[in-house]
Each structure stands twice: as C-alpha cells, then as structure tokens.
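Handout, page 2. Input:
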Amino acid sequence: MKLRCAATLALVLGWYLMLPPPIRLPESGIEPDTFAPFSQWKQIGPPYDKASDCATAQKAEEKLFLKNFDDLQHKIAVLPLSDKPMSQVAPELYDEDVKLTFTGLAITMSQCVASDDSRLKEN
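Output:
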C-alpha cells in the first residue's frame, strides 16, 4: 500500500449509518427527504470502524423493520371489520403504522457515510 493511501485511510475515523430527515408533502404525508443535505440526516447507531460493519448494521435495521411491520400487520388483522378509517377505529395502531411506514422508507434510503465526508458539514 502506498503511503498516501495509508494516510487517507488513517484519516477516516469511522462510518455513520445515516437516515434522511422527514419532509411533509401534501399529497402523500411524511416521506424521507433524500434531497436534504447530509448535515440534516440523522445518525442511527454508533460510528462503525469499517464500511462493511455499517452495511451489516443497515441490513440489521432493515430486518428489524420487517419484523416490526409484520407484528403490526398481525395486530391490524385482528381488528373488527369496520367502515370507519383505521385512524378512528384504532388511532394508536394508525399512528404506529404511519411512523413505521416512514421508518421503513427511511431505512431503505439510508446510507453509510464516512465520518470525514465533507457533505456532513454542508448546510
């Protein structure tokens, strides 16, 4: 390995798993804002030593989301049939569904970013 490459690697302190922030859209509610600068994205979990560790954590977050989504779908499935919207029948499950849907979208759009990435400092 050349000295310059080694120096570059030494400067990278770690990797962050970053989620895009929410944006409210009139036609679709809350969605992840993938156009927001990285300085506005939310770091989840600790810094990771390697990009592969961050990618593993990203996959684990996706797996956790799928489990939580499946659990929620089971709760919704046992609700009594109603002509009313779920927001009226089971407002707590509705709120959980909205939050979980946003989380799932955000996780699929998450990115592993090097801690020295200049985009983290941009406004």
